[in-house]
């Protein structure tokens, strides 16, 4: 069953030098209880997509066109109060560097309280819920009396995940939840996210540039480049046989212990979104670019197999 | 063969809070750190550890930016804190650095080549604008950047990867003998990391430059490191050749680190649950335990001995480990 | 790519851009125009009106504005307009001298103390705190009344300056304390730069705009304080400043005797001068802040 659908969404930033299309005509379907990853380098639009999905885009960013349907209803047409009912209660968000988003002068329990009251909960009944949530994220209840600076990075991240879960949303959007965390803590947080998905049946949208992280916990992945989705499919399939050259390079640029071959890395730099090249956006950096085709028209996302889509001329006509 | 640089029993203690009454609160960032680098032997030595392991502090001590509480850093046999003016200049020129944050490392009010220019002028490598230009061009070329695309730009006009490459160019321009790279790729996207790591590898092979590569990422240290030192809370717990340490790891902490690396292969997902090791759940900002192994609380193989005695580095098979299991 | 030091300075501190930008603000423009008008009065008066007009007995005393005397004469028979021209210049000079001592000396103290730290910094910090907690006006009055007769331009500027260097020193110092921890300062050290070079080339440009705004507001402060001292009889009696003009006027009962042109002229000019510098400062300050927000 489809819970969240992004349909032909275009989100732009108005800059002094022109309109920057951070998300360009993106269509994404998120099904119940799955963990779907959105991968891509910095600047590919994945964070903008996440913010747009919650209508959190602030000027100079705005949604130019498209629909975002939650259980069939387009949230872009709703009023502000209605959106507030949806945010955190049906769809919640774990922002980047969220550990730094905790208010340093409030105790943890007060931060929970503030958020819950803002969403209509009764101020006096919250403590029990906070306790339950803290144990759900594997923290001892006494943590709620501490200030953020008294906790370690991993604990803070758990608190933030707890805050995203406490109003019992069905969908969780996590934007780079493990950057700035050490590798051991990163593993714990990722396992927590997996546990949330399995035990609590939540739907998770994981935004991360790290393909290894995506491989660990996602079921499906959408790969973005310069504002567009270039490949989408089941995680297993994508890693076993990446179709789009960009996906392939993303995966092979990760060093793995035991492998001695020279890493390829991706040559060049992501394009300036205000001055996009003609044709396929990845062409200037693509090792398999075909002159005459790739620099003339933009490839569109076409289904290849049952659960696979690619936007690349190497696969047109299959 | 003579030694280029030697760190002997470096210890650094930071005072975190003072009060008139009661004890001072201290943090031992680094304890009894030893390292020796030989001349004419270009290699990459990785120092691996999580945040709080002391690795950045070591970098700063080796660079002479902070003074150790005890212990000495020798450059070609002389204490770096006691060098005379000429020796200091030579030391500065031969020991350069690349920092972690490609934004903070540039002064936002100056163009990106500003620091390269100053370095070249200060060390007398370029006295007129023509030679300055040539040298800068060469350095930028070495890291895969085009002179005309970089000169005159301000830091915010370049991407993280480009800025980091300019940083490498700056360090390289002086043709140093040693470059200390403190988490040079942590803030870059995975795909850009490979490029910068390859540049560092090439610099070592083509120009014979030694690198001390500081990171929390074992995979990258495997990729470019010849030797490796694993640190935990200020102490070196295991060290040896990279291949050996990472494929036949001895210390429980090294094993924990290895276990926690996510692999870009969905068929090789984590199997062992983290409960085997104690976790961040119960860990608050902890106080100092002067004696005993600092990994005690998380070690699945801990013994009574580990609580009260401090393990020291000892040679075991092909590496050195600090653990009572051996 | 050879740039002269001047061009480099301009680039780093972005003065060219700032100047262009600041002229877009109405408040700055008004302030600037007012300042120019006042300056032109002063220039006109000093170059086109004979110096003899300021001497005692040059004209019929206490005459209202008429004929040669655009603003009338005072009780000594001196032309008021001519006096005004010299007063404006002198007041401004005192203001500038105070600003130099205050902003520039104060900033230098802040840079050195903040960057080098240690015992020097500890001592300077104490001195700054002491200077800031003293009620300056009272002390100024005390000092001035002690040296009463021998006060001139320079000593007045020095005394007022004494009480205006502490605040910029503190502001600059605290900024330096945080800036010196930034990574680019470490890079500068590794590039072989010495302490004073790092201060001047890497750190100072960050403070430049603030220092400019502060410089102008200190000119204001200097002029006002000097006027206050002068009106109370503690100013540079041998010189003509706006404050001194008011002093003489008050002392010779201009108010009661209806010689309004004598005291209204300096008062109005003072107010306009104040306004002009203040408005210019507002314009400059506004640029300082929005600049921090850049669309990455």
- Please state roughly what percent of the residues of chain C sit in beta strands, choosing from under 5%, 5-15%, 15-25%, 25-35%, 35-45% or over 45%: under 5%
Q: What string, H for helix and E for strand, traces the elements of chain A in order?
A: EEEHEEHEHHHEHEHEEHHEE
Strand content of chain A: 15-25%
By CATH, the architecture of chain A is named 3-Layer(aba) Sandwich
Radius of gyration of chain A, rounded?
A: 20 Å
Number of strands of chain A: 12
Tally of helical runs of chain A: 9
Largest sheet of chain A: 8 strands, mixed
**CATH first level of chain A:** Alpha Beta
The two chains with the largest interface, and their residue counts, are: A-B, 51 and 48 residues
CATH superfamily of chain C: MetI-like
Describe the structure.
The complex is a heterotrimer of chains A (318), B (326) and C (296). Chain A contains nine helices and twelve strands. Chain A is globular, with a radius of gyration of 20 Å. Chain A has helices at 46-53, 80-86, 108-118, 126-136, 153-165, 183-200, 211-217, 235-240, 245-252, and strands at residues 2-15, 18-31, 35-39, 61-70, 73-74, 91-94, 171-175, 203-207, 220-225, 228-234, 302-303, 308-310. Chain A starts with a strand and ends in an 8-residue tail after the last strand. Chain A has a single domain (2-90, 169-315), classed as P-loop containing nucleotide triphosphate hydrolases (Rossmann fold), CATH 3.40.50.300. Chain A is of the alpha/beta class and 318 residues long. Helix content of chain A is 28%, strand content 24%. Chain B has 326 residues and is α/β, with parallel strands linked by helices. Chain B is 32% helix and 23% strand. In chain B, the strands form two sheets. An eight-stranded mixed sheet of chain B has the order 6-7-8-3-9-10-12-11, with helices on both faces. A four-stranded antiparallel sheet of chain B has the order 2-1-4-5, with helices on one face. In chain B, β1 and β2 form a beta hairpin. Chain B is globular, with a radius of gyration of 21 Å. The relative contact order of chain B is 0.13. Chain C has 296 residues and is mostly helical. Chain C has twelve helices and no strands. In chain C, α10 packs antiparallel against α12. The radius of gyration of chain C is 23 Å and the shape is elongated. Mean pLDDT of chain C is 85; it is low at 292-296. The chains are: A alpha/beta (318), B alpha/beta (326), C mainly alpha (296). The interface between A and B is large, with 51 and 48 residues.
């Amino acid at each position: 069953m489809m819970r969240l659908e992004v349909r032909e969404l275009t989100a732009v930033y108005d800059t002094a030098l022109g309109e920057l299309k951070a998300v360009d005509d993106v269509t994404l379907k998120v099904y119940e209880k799955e963990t779907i990853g959105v991968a891509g380098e910095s600047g590919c639009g994945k964070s903008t997509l996440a913010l747009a999905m919650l209508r959190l885009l602030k000027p100079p960013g705005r949604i130019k066109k498209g629909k975002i349907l939650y259980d069939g209803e387009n949230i872009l047409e709703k009023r502000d109060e209605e959106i507030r009912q949806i945010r955190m209660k049906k769809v919640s968000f774990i922002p980047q560097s969220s550990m730094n988003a905790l208010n340093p002068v409030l105790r943890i329990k007060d931060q929970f309280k503030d958020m819950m009251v803002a969403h209509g909960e009764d101020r006096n009944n919250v403590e029990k819920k906070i306790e339950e949530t803290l144990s759900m994220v594997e923290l001892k209840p006494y943590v709620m009396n501490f200030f953020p600076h008294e906790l370690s990075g991993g604990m803070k991240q758990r608190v933030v995940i707890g805050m995203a879960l406490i109003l019992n949303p069905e969908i969780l959007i996590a934007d780079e939840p493990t950057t700035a965390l050490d590798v051991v803590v990163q593993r714990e947080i990722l396992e927590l996210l997996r546990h949330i998905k399995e035990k609590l049946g939540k739907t998770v949208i994981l935004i991360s540039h790290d393909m290894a992280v995506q491989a660990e916990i996602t079921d499906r992945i959408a790969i973005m480049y310069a504002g567009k989705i270039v490949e989408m499919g089941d995680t297993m399939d994508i890693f076993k046989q990446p179709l789009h050259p960009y996906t392939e390079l993303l995966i092979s640029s990760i060093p793995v212990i035991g492998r001695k071959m020279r890493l390829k890395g991706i040559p060049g730099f992501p394009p300036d979104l205000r001055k996009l090249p003609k044709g396929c956006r990845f062409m200037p950096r693509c090792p398999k670019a075909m002159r005459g085709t790739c620099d003339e028209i933009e490839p569109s996302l076409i289904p290849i197999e049952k659960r696979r889509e690619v936007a690349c001329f190497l696969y047109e006509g299959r | 063969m003579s030694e280029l640089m030697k760190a002997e029993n470096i210890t650094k203690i930071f005072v975190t809070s003072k009060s008139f009454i009661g004890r001072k609160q201290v943090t031992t960032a680094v304890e009894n750190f030893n390292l020796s680098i030989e001349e004419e032997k270009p290699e990459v030595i990785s120092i691996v550890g999580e945040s709080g392991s002391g690795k950045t502090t070591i970098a700063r001590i080796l660079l002479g930016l902070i003074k150790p509480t005890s212990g000495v850093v020798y450059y070609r046999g002389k204490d770096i804190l006691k060098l005379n003016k000429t020796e200091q200049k030579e030391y500065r020129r031969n020991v350069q650095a690349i920092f972690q944050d490609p934004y903070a490392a540039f002064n936002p009010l100056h163009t990106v080549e500003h620091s390269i220019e100053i370095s070249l002028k200060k060390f007398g490598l370029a006295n007129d604008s023509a030679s300055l230009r040539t040298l800068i061009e060469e350095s930028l070329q070495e890291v895969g950047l085009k002179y005309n695309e970089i000169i005159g730009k301000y830091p915010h006009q370049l991407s993280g990867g480009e800025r980091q490459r300019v940083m490498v160019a700056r360090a390289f321009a002086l043709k140093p003998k040693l470059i200390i790279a403190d988490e040079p790729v942590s803030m870059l996207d995975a795909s850009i990391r490979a490029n910068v790591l390859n540049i560092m590898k090439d610099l070592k092979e083509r120009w014979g430059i030694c690198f001390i590569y500081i990171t929390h990422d074992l995979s990258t240290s495997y990729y470019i490191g010849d030797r490796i030192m694993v640190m935990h809370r200020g102490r070196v717990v295991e060290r040896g050749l990279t291949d050996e340490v990472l494929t036949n790891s001895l210390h429980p902490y090294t094993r924990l680190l290895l276990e926690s690396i996510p692999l870009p292969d969905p068929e090789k997902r984590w199997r062992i649950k983290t409960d085997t090791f104690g976790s961040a759940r119960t860990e608050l900002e902890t106080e100092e335990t002067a004696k005993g192994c600092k990994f005690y609380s998380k070690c699945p193989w801990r013994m009574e001995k580990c609580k009260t005695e401090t393990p020291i580095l000892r040679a075991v098979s092909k590496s050195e480990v600090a653990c009572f299991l051996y | 790519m050879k740039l002269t030091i001047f061009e480099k300075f301009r680039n780093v501190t972005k003065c060219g851009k700032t100047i262009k930008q600041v002229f877009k603000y109405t408040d700055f423009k008004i302030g600037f125009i007012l300042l120019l008008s006042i300056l032109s009065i002063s220039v006109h008066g000093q170059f086109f009106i004979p110096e003899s007009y300021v001497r005692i007995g040059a004209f019929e005393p206490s005459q209202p504005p008429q004929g040669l005397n655009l603003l009338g004469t005072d009780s000594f028979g001196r032309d008021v307009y001519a006096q005004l021209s010299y007063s404006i210049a002198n007041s401004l000079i005192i203001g500038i001298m105070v600003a130099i001592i205050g902003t520039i000396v104060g900033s230098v103290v802040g840079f050195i103390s903040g960057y080098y730290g240690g015992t020097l910094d500890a001592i300077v910090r104490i001195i700054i705190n002491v200077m800031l907690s003293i009620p300056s006006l009272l002390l100024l009055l005390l000092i001035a009344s002690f040296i009463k007769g021998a006060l001139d331009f320079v000593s007045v500027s020095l005394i007022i300056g004494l009480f205006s260097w502490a605040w910029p020193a503190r502001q600059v110092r605290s900024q330096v304390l945080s800036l010196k921890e930034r990574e680019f300062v470490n890079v500068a050290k590794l590039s072989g730069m010495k302490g004073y070079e790092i201060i001047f080339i890497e750190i100072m440009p960050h403070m430049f705009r603030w220092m400019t705004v502060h410089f102008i507001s200190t000119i204001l402060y200097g002029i006002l304080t000097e006027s206050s001292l002068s009106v109370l009889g503690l100013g540079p009696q041998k010189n003509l400043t706006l404050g001194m003009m008011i002093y003489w006027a008050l002392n010779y009962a201009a108010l009661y005797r209806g010689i309004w042109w004598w005291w209204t002229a300096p008062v109005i000019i003072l107010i306009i001068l104040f306004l002009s510098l203040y408005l210019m400062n507002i314009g400059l300050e506004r640029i300082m802040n929005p600049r921090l927000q850049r669309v990455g």
